[in-house]
């Protein structure tokens, strides 16, 4: 347990020093170089995608992006707050790996918009405080007694605009 705490401290120190070394460390992060290329392509090809990306750069939020082959049937993407620490909110975003070209970017933009909504709120620090904010800016789409999910019109608008901007 003590070892884990020490490792975490080292990890956090490294994060801080890399932030100090660069004015603008990326808020949107991925380990996957293909996904990094996808994100850069989205920024180049869609004004709206780039706008969401740039907005995140000014917010205290770090977004980890990956694709998932095993999302529940019918789900194209999802995001969740992982933790809040050191003034930053850490968000995990995933989308279905099987999604094709522009749909993939549109869904990713949708989820990045949700990360932006988390970043724009100063009161979100955990799932309960996030639920309060999303009750306000959005609406609940799922509540099975265990999991709840929210949607916002802004994210749907971003998804539609990115789809339009990418064309066929
Ligand atoms: Zn959504």
Explain briefly what this protein structure is.
The chain contains 6 helices and 6 strands; from the N terminus they run H-E-H-H-E-E-E-H-H-E-E-H.
Give structural attributes.
globular, 168 residues, 6 strands, alpha/beta, two-stranded antiparallel ribbon, binds zinc ion
Task: Describe the fold and architecture.
The protein is of the alpha/beta class and 168 residues long. It has one domain. Helices cover 53% and strands 22% of the residues. It is built from six helices and six strands, in the order αβααβββααββα. The chain has helices at residues 2-21, 33-45, 47-57, 101-120, 127-137, 153-166, and strands at 28-29, 61-68, 77-85, 88-96, 139-143, 148-151. The chain has a four-stranded mixed β-sheet. β3 and β4 (88-96) form a beta hairpin. α3 (47-57) runs parallel beside α4 (101-120), α3 crosses α6 and α4 runs antiparallel to α6 (153-166). The radius of gyration is 16 Å and the shape is globular. The N and C termini lie far apart (52 Å). The chain binds zinc ion. Zinc ion (ZN) binds next to α4. Zinc ion binds at residues 110, 114, 151, 155.
């Amino acid at each position: 347990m003590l070892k884990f705490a020490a490792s975490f401290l080292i990890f956090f120190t490294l994060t801080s020093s890399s932030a100090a070394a660069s004015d603008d460390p990326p808020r949107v992060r991925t380990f996957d170089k293909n996904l990094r290329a996808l994100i850069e392509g989205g920024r180049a090809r869609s004004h709206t995608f780039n706008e969401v990306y740039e907005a995140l750069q000014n917010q205290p939020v770090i977004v980890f992006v990956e694709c998932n082959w095993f999302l529940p049937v019918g789900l194209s993407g999802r995001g969740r707050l992982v933790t809040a620490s050191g003034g930053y909110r850490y968000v995990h975003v995933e989308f279905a790996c099987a999604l094709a070209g522009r749909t993939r970017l549109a869904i990713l933009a949708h989820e990045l918009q949700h990360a932006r909504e988390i970043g724009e709120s100063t009161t979100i620090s955990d799932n309960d405080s996030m639920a309060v904010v999303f009750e306000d800016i959005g609406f609940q789409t799922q509540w099975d007694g265990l999991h709840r999910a929210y949607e916002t019109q802004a994210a749907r608008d971003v998804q539609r605009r990115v789809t339009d901007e990418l064309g066929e």
